[in-house]
């Protein structure tokens, strides 16, 4: 069955992904974040797509530096997190967690995912369960905690964890190999991760992406979504500690990995 939305992911800059969503019913095109990379225009021209909507996840340069050029060329509606509006330009509209944004024959729900930056948000496409997580969640990892605090970041990840297992996960970076190696350093006997590492190595050797993932896979295997699993807590020496502290310890261990 053809899906209602066509989703394309383009590797840009060093490790970023630019992501495009086309509504097959209306022909409308949205993009998630706007890295500054001419590959984006080459891609859009080749597809003959003109974005009418840009969904920004957070203020970091590698997600917003292309906004000016995208605006000049396509003049889309640029939606940015209300909490980071002063640091992101240009933009037309601000949005906060809980909002529902119509797009073509569907809707995006805005989710609160603070921690990487304090105003970071993620977008969930309801009609074709898909999460655009920006730098809040990566495959087998999560974003570095620049702003924190750890308890808010953990709450945001728990909100993502409540999405259905079949949800397709797109995120802002290709970091999977590093993430899987780190996860295996915590739980070396985790068979699914061992197998996954092999697949990831093969994909990367051929310069192929390891994304998208699914939330079902991430819930079972991503240590940052498993801070309340005693096995992971024990691995970072936090057995029985409050979950947000376990999460902070996993994040710190990854920073030092
Ligand atoms: Zn970032």
TrEMBL record:
Listed cofactors: Zn(2+)
Record bears the keyword Protein transport: no
Class of enzymatic activity (EC top level): hydrolase
Cofactor binding, note field: Binds 2 Zn(2+) ions per subunit.
Function: Thiolesterase that catalyzes the hydrolysis of S-D-lactoyl-glutathione to form glutathione and D-lactic acid.
Protein name: Hydroxyacylglutathione hydrolase
Metallo-beta-lactamase domain boundaries: 15-173
Pathways involved: Secondary metabolite metabolism; methylglyoxal degradation; (R)-lactate from methylglyoxal: step 2/2
Catalysed reactions listed for this entry: an S-(2-hydroxyacyl)glutathione + H2O = a 2-hydroxy carboxylate + glutathione + H(+)
SUBUNIT field: Monomer.
Residues annotated as binding Zn(2+) 1: 58, 60, 116, 135
Organism annotation: Maritalea mediterranea
Enzyme Commission code(s) on record: 3.1.2.6
Protein family membership: Belongs to the metallo-beta-lactamase superfamily. Glyoxalase II family.
Residues binding Zn(2+) 2: 62-63, 135, 173
Keywords: Hydrolase, Metal-binding, Zinc
């Amino acid at each position: 069955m053809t899906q209602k939305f066509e989703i394309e992911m383009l590797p840009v800059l060093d490790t970023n992904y630019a992501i495009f969503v086309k509504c097959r019913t209306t022909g409308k095109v949205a993009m998630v974040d706007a890295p500054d990379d001419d590959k984006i225009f080459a891609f859009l021209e080749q597809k003959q797509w003109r974005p009418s909507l840009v969904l920004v996840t957070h203020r970091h340069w590698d997600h917003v530096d292309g906004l000016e050029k995208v605006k000049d060329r396509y003049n889309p509606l640029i939606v940015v997190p209300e909490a980071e509006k002063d640091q992101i330009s240009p933009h037309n509209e601000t949005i906060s967690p809980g909002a529902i944004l119509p797009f073509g024959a569907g809707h995006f729900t805005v989710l609160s995912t603070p921690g990487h930056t304090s105003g970071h948000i993620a977008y969930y496409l309801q009609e074709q369960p898909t999460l655009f997580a920006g730098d809040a969640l990566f495959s087998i990892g999560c974003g570095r905690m620049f702003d924190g605090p750890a308890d808010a970041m953990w709450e945001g990840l728990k909100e993502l964890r409540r999405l259905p297992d079949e949800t397709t996960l797109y995120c802002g970076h290709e970091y999977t190999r590093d993430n899987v190696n780190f996860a295996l350093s915590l739980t070396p006997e985790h068979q699914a991760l061992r197998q996954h590492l092999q697949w990831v190595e093969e994909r990367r050797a051929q310069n192929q992406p390891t994304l998208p993932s699914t939330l079902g896979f991430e819930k079972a295997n991503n240590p940052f979504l498993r801070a309340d699993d005693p096995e992971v807590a024990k691995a970072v020496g936090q057995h029985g500690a409050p979950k947000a502290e376990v999460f902070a310890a996993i994040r710190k261990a990854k920073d030092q990995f």
